[in-house]
Amino acid sequence: MTRGVGVFREAEIPVALEVFDAATGSGREVDPDYESAGVELDGTLAGWACWGPTPGTEGTFDLYWIVVDPGRHGSGVGSQLMDEMHRRIVGRARLVLIETSGRADYAATRAFYARHGYHLVSTIPDFYAPGDDRVTYARAFIARSARDAGGRPDGGATPLPDAGPRPS
Known about the structure:
By secondary structure, the chain is of the alpha+beta class. The chain has 3 helices and 7 strands. Strand 2 and strand 3 form a beta hairpin. The protein is globular.
């Protein structure tokens, strides 16, 4: 599936598979630094996402990988994965970061993140390779006080509304 998407460089594919194995416990113990979700349709994995808390931070998470079978693009599988990640991090996350490519063939990916309330926060030119910028998106989450949340155990954390980029 990762290779079939057609946008990942050949060197990225073994990294994605290593993270997948660590997150799912394929062949070994699950790595507690990773959390993951998958969508299965007709008995086949249609998409997979992996995220986790960013080491050394308070409440910051990274979305490491999200991959949807190319035949399922536009079917809502990616949105299901994003919604599941958001559901699972409520009450723990205050910020989620996503790093992606600035190449033209990633335009649909960047638009997908924007539709899910993520905002462009940085671009590093030629990061991955000449002409391949690193583009970082962020989405802030807020945790309401227990009083405001009605005593909910998750603290009533909710994603912030899509309010556009913050001034620097």
